[in-house]
Amino acid sequence: MGEGSTARRPGKTFSADVTAPNSAGEGFATFRREWETQTGEAFPLPDLDVGNSVDFRISVQAAKAHDVFIADFYNKAYVGQTTGSAADDRVLVHLMEHGTWRFGRPDNRAETIAVPAGSFIVRYEGFPATFDVDPGAKAKVLNLPAPELLPLLRGREVTGTAQTAEMRVLKAHANMITETVLDLSPSGVHAARDALIELTGGVLRRGFDDQEPRFAHALARAAMELADRHLDTPELSPTWLAHELHISIRSLHRAFAATGDTAAAYIRTRRLDRARLDLTAPHNRPSITEIAARWQFADSSHFVRAFKKRYGETPTQFARATNPGPDTVTEPRPHPHS
């Protein structure tokens, strides 16, 4: 349970774990009871008919920002159907991280929609739906008020890949809310909530206003996460990041300015961090030249200078202090004209 989770304030964190063996009906009743006890209010979830299911075992960790919920969901056993009698009109975003979540209609009037890892679905909670979730599946679920998003859904489910620029930014913002919600002021919680809904609208429209100041930190974080996955890619640069996120280079610079950093400085710092990690290898440690090439420095001399500027010692000095031995690297002699 999150600290201060029962306090009457717009930002809270809480959790529920009903992964122990139990009957399906008992498991869902326990889950709802745990949730309402911790949040101090009814969780906006429609009634669940578990039918012939023998199990309902899930674990959820979540954050509440005013009237939106961001939940990290882990499934052990979850099969059933909702009645569509939601306590409030809600739109749900399921972002699958592992396993597959299948959605259908009890009347079989529509085909079952399978949402595998690496993809998402945005759907209206008010429609009755059947669920069949892979054991071990993990998902991030956003539970949002419907009025602002229903016009964009137009009575349909929207699915897609989680690798779109819009979804990357939405996920980055959701993660930031989860991490900071207890420290935000009431006005900060409301601003974070409004940005989350606006970014979800961007996913549905396949675009968002990248000049909106509220999105700056989310844009920067999405760019950082993308850069971290491509640090060894020669093409990685601020221009490449902007292209991948479908924003202008000016918008990218503006987003990083809000964090007090620049995109180029972030890339250089993270590459140096990875190079420093390479230098701690106890055996078969790569050479300075190999490390410089791996992390896309122009040459070993440039790498040595950048490393010393950041850490106050040369790569060789760091390697000797960290792991002295016969594998300790030595720096190449500087070129007389470098």
Description:
The protein has 338 residues and is of the alpha+beta class. Among the domains are: 11-161, Jelly Rolls; 267-322, Orthogonal Bundle (Arc Repressor Mutant, subunit A), CATH 1.10.10. Helices cover 38% and strands 22% of the residues. It contains eleven helices and eleven strands. The protein has helices at residues 24-39, 150-153, 165-180, 186-205, 216-228, 238-244, 249-257, 263-278, 288-294, 300-311, 315-322; strands spanning 11-17, 48-49, 56-65, 68-82, 90-98, 101-104, 113-115, 119-124, 129-133, 138-145, 158-161. Strands 1, 2, 3, 4, 5, 6, 7, 8, 9, 10 and 11 form an eleven-stranded antiparallel beta sheet that branches. β3 (56-65) and β4 form a beta hairpin. The radius of gyration is 24 Å and the shape is elongated.
